[in-house]
Amino acid sequence: MVKLENKKDQNNNGDRVNHPHYYQDPSGVECIDIIRHRDFNIGSAIKYLWRAGLKTEEGMDISDKAIEDLQKSIFYINDEINLIKEQRKKSA
Description:
This protein has one domain (21-91). The chain is 51% helix and 0% strand. The chain is built from three helices and no strands. It has helices spanning 31-35, 40-51, 62-91. The N and C termini lie far apart (39 Å).
């Protein structure tokens, strides 16, 4: 289950372009350090899973934003599955 943080972005002082807090893990690993080694769909799915429940958006409830991020992740996973199926058909 995604742990929802019910607080405003407390890292507004930080670098929201290069190092947003919702892409940083407490271990020190940043999402980009992982996803840059994956293809687009897999990397995008990981990115949205990573930030689900952490990123806030003005005018949007934290739970709704988490659901949106999870749905985006599912979109990229399904797209990757469809690409693999198409490649398999072409090579058969």
